[in-house]
Structure formats: C-alpha cells, structure tokens
Automatic annotation (TrEMBL):
Name of the molecule in the record: Thiamine-binding protein domain-containing protein
Residue ranges occupied by any Thiamine-binding protein domain in the UniProt entry: 5-96
Similarity annotation: Belongs to the UPF0045 family.
Species assigned in the record: [Clostridium] ultunense Esp
PANTHER family, A to Z: UPF0045 PROTEIN ECM15 (PTHR33777:SF1)
Signal peptide positions on this chain: none
Length: 98
C-alpha cells in the first residue's frame, strides 16, 4: 500500500435527505471496491495503491451525478509514499476508540 485518500463528497442538492441518499450511494461504491476504508462523519478514508485510489476519487464524482445531483463538490486529502509504508487507518484511529 502506497497511498491513502480521504474524500468528502458534497452533492449540490436541496435537501439533507437527498444529500444522505447520494452520499450513501458513493459509500456503497467505495465498499464495492474491496479496499480497506473507514467512514467518518465528514469523510471516508480509503487505503490502497495511488493510481487505483485516484480512479476511485474520479468515479465518486460520476456516482454522485448519476445518483441525481446536478453538480458535486469534493474535498480530497492524499497521502502518497511511492515506496510504500503510509500509516494505516488502524494505526491512526484504533487507539482512540473504546
């Protein structure tokens, strides 16, 4: 694993219910990739290889549009170490959970 990505997808729609529906579809797509991921209250973190993660980030935009929003904004954080060895989700958060 040489990268991790945190993505927050913000569909530009009129109701909170529709926001949640679209975000749920994006998260379902992320789950379907088979990669390790962590859903937080503001963003979802995914671990894997850099190129694959960039394809997933791109596809998240298309999933949101296909799910009914006319436009989407996303905030993305990327940690990339070409030689591998980025900190894992577990290394970052496990110690903070009861």
């Amino acid at each position: 694993m040489n990268a991790s990505v945190a993505i927050q997808v913000l569909p530009k729609v009129e109701t909170d219910e529709l926001v949640c529906k679209i975000v749920d579809e994006v998260i379902a797509y992320i789950k379907s990739t088979g990669l390790s991921y962590y859903v937080g209250p503001f963003e979802t973190t995914i671990e894997g290889e850099f190129e694959e993660l960039m394809d997933i980030v791109k596809e998240c935009q298309y999933i949101a549009i296909k799910s009914g929003c006319p436009s989407v904004m996303s905030y993305v954080k990327i940690c990339f170490k070409p030689e591998g060895g980025v900190l894992t989700i577990d290394q970052k958060v496990t110690k903070h959970h009861k």
